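Example 3.2
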Amino acid sequence: MKPLPVLGDRKSRGLSTDQGFPASGCTRRDVIKYAFGAFALAGAGINVGCSSRQGSGNEQTADSEFELSGRPKATLDPDSRLPIVWIEAGVCTGCAVTLLGSTDPTIESVLPLLRLEFQETLMDRSGASEMDRLLATSSELANKYLFVIDGTIPAGPTAHATTLGMAARDYELTAQDLVTQLAQRAAAIVALGTCASFGGINAAKPNPANHRPLADFVPPGKPLIRIPGCPPHPAWILETLTTVLTKGLPGLVLDELGRPLPAFGGTIHDVCLRRSAYEAGEFAESPGDPVRCLMAVGCKGPMTHADCPKRLWGGRSSCIQANHPCIGCAAPGFPDAREDAGVEGKTATSPIYS
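Structure, written as tokens:
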């Protein structure tokens, strides 16, 4: 693979800043500019190495330092912040938008700010100069930054299907080139959303562009954390990244697929408010039933590891509370069963797409 050039000196910090919101209030641009402070609640130096153990279908693991929203209960020291480089590959931008829509805490109210080095959707600059700065930054901060990727990566002859930009001297940056080399320089890597975690909708059949999940591009031995969901709940993002920022990777307890157990240690069925209807054998005959268990109409809650009914979306609802069966969007097999998705993926295929 042709190596990426490291060009020029970094003259700015991108979105990084040590200043808070102006006292007179926030414009929409201010909100976007400072958005990612929601998961920059503090930062200790990152330590390589994760705690990992097997998670059973009935297991629930709660971290007492966090509310269900992902908000830390303790006041955290903002003096040291971990640099984060966030790349969007083959995306719908939903993973970034879900975080911007966090309701507890709200994006506008959370300080101190994140040291976000690159996130193209939120940046007010673009073009070759920013791509050059990204390459220079990743070289400067080698083995010191957290690399977050959402979306899939087209590979091989179809790599050009996702071209993320041009560096100086018209050097084209495909997602495959950029993600591969930035992953090598990162201290640890976060696969954000089901596409990055397992392939998701982009990798569904027939997949003509050969979209691949992030794991296919992670160097051996490099820590990989998966936060699936289409999109993931903002609390899953906040809780996981805050743990890494404050405790380092050893603070995370992961299952065998690299998912944090506080969010993914049990299934949706385990915490479903209709569990009593299931136990009583009361099953809905069609979607939209407001009371009975939805398993007979395709609910994938028993096979999907997540806690949506407990967290709620927007603090208000979830698929099942909206009288719709769980479609298994956080499972490896979403939206279609694939041979590379493992046992969980083969059983959690979405009823909407099968």
